[in-house]
Automatic annotation (TrEMBL):
This is Pirin. The keyword Plastid does not apply. GO terms for molecular function: metal ion binding. Pfam families: Pirin, Pirin_C. Residues 193-297 form the Pirin C-terminal domain. Fe cation binds at residues 79, 81, 123, 125. Belongs to the pirin family. It comes from the Bacteria. Residues 323-342 are annotated as: Disordered. Its cofactor is Fe cation. Binds 1 Fe cation per subunit.
């Protein structure tokens, strides 16, 4: 998924140090339209003013359930990325993914698609004709400095559900409850979907080096982190994201009287600062400006637009074969140097 804000704000995402307090922090979502006459709205919780990263997780959009007849579904033409990996997770619907390393894949419920942009990639995402309801999450993972110029790549995995204590857990990245995802990542990271029966209580042993986030998709959950400093609890409402700092050895999730579904995210404090602007992750103003110029050069050198398609010249971001949508041009840069903001 792309950031379709016509005036994207540069954001410095500052990795934690692991020395934050034990109190659980609640991050409320903000509504962001993805553009177009029937804009599909997403609920964005990362980055936020209160917190910009959880481990290496740097971006979280949560959308649906949307009736595609009303919203128009997802129509995201080719667009670029650098310095990050995209993680797609669906609850309902189906999306066709195409990218410039030659991947043509479907995003389906219960399967994770991880696309590593590395030094540069472009891709498109479009909901399929058979999709009537679209519901899911799109996340980004910042790549550590030593890997951010890696070769672009794509991976797909369907985790085996774990049934435990009135819960169904799907571990799509990292390790949890004895399950380990085979998806390769460039930093230690955790990603799992947890479905809780009404009133269910689940105790989860976790790595106390990690900071954790719990995004509530449906229902309401009481989240408790238990560690050497004692327990800390918070009630997390639908669509909100709860943050627990490092130090918890156990996370306890208590569902209310309805079915509750959450995404559990985690990782060690990132320890690096990054600048995100539009679809680019870099370290300096000059890097981001150069990425934008290279993308604009690729789509400009490609030639004239014919119908709704446009040829795209090859370059850093490659070419998305088989997609005939007009590539998304980069927004104008702000009339000032891209400044970091924590």
């Amino acid at each position: 998924m792309t950031n379709l804000d016509p005036h994207p704000t540069p954001v410095e995402c500052v990795g934690g140090t692991g020395e934050e307090g034990v109190e659980i922090q609640i991050i409320a979502p903000r509504d962001v339209p993805l553009g177009g006459p029937r804009a599909m709205n997403v609920r964005r919780t990362l980055p936020a003013r209160a917190r910009s990263l959880i481990g290496a997780w740097c971006f979280l959009d949560h959308y649906g359930p949307d009736d595609v007849v009303v919203s128009g579904g997802m129509e995201v033409p080719p667009h670029p990325h650098t310095g990050l990996a995209t993680v797609s997770w669906l609850f309902t619907g189906e999306i066709e993914h195409r990218d410039s390393v030659g991947t043509v894949a479907m995003v389906r419920p219960g399967e994770v698609n991880l696309m590593t942009s590395g030094r540069g990639i472009s891709h498109s995402e479009n909901s399929t004709a058979d999709t009537t309801v679209l519901h899911g999450a799109q996340l980004w993972v910042a790549l550590p400095d030593e890997f951010r110029d890696a070769e672009p790549a794509f991976q797909n995995h369907r985790p085996t559900p774990i049934e435990q204590d009135g819960a169904t857990v799907r571990v799509f990245l990292g390790s949890l409850l004895g399950a380990t995802s085979p998806v390769r990542t460039h930093s230690e990271i955790l990603g799992a979907e947890i479905l809780l029966e009404p009133g269910a209580r689940l105790e989860i042993p976790v790595d106390d080096r990690f900071e954790h986030g719990v995004l509530v998709d449906t229902g309401v959950v009481e989240m408790t982190g238990v560690g050497a400093a004692g327990p800390a609890s918070a009630t997390v409402a639908k669509d909100s994201l709860a943050y627990a700092p490092p130090g918890a050895e156990t996370l306890v999730l208590q569902a209310d009287d309805a079915w509750t579904r959450v995404l559990l995210l985690g990782g060690p404090p990132f320890g690096e600062s990054i600048i995100m602007w539009w679809n680019f992750v870099g370290r300096t103003h000059e890097e981001v400006v150069a990425y934008r110029e290279e993308w604009q050069d690729q789509i400009t050198r490609g030639g004239a637009v014919v119908d709704d398609s446009q040829e795209v010249a090859d370059g850093r971001f490659g070419v998305v074969e088989g997609n005939h949508q007009r590539p998304i041009p980069a927004p104008a840069l702000p009339n000032a140097r891209l400044r970091s903001r924590s």
